[in-house]
Amino acid sequence: MITRSHTNARMSQIVSFQNFVFLAGQVGEPGDDVAKQTRDTLAKIDALLAESNSSREQILRAEIWLDDMRDFAAVNEIWEEWMPYGHAPARASGEVRVGRPGLKVEILITAAQA
Question: Which CATH class is domain 2-112?
């Protein structure tokens, strides 16, 4: 059975199927610097994973979209502080025009349920 949470006409923030959790792209506040946006985004991911009976240790795949690849090192530093050693997921990063002006980072997550 597919379960959707925090749903509107366009999207769901969480979609669960079998033992998998798919999170919509999470972002911080437009205009904040990339470090604050990344930390805020990871906090949102933590909350959504907890709500879905999962955690950062259960992340299988992450996609990190950056407005500017010059921010890659800063985002990686924060990611590495956040991700417990030995639990790094499959991951891809790229430069894209993130959803709204002022957004610098968007992160999409696929995880297993605990």
Answer: alpha beta
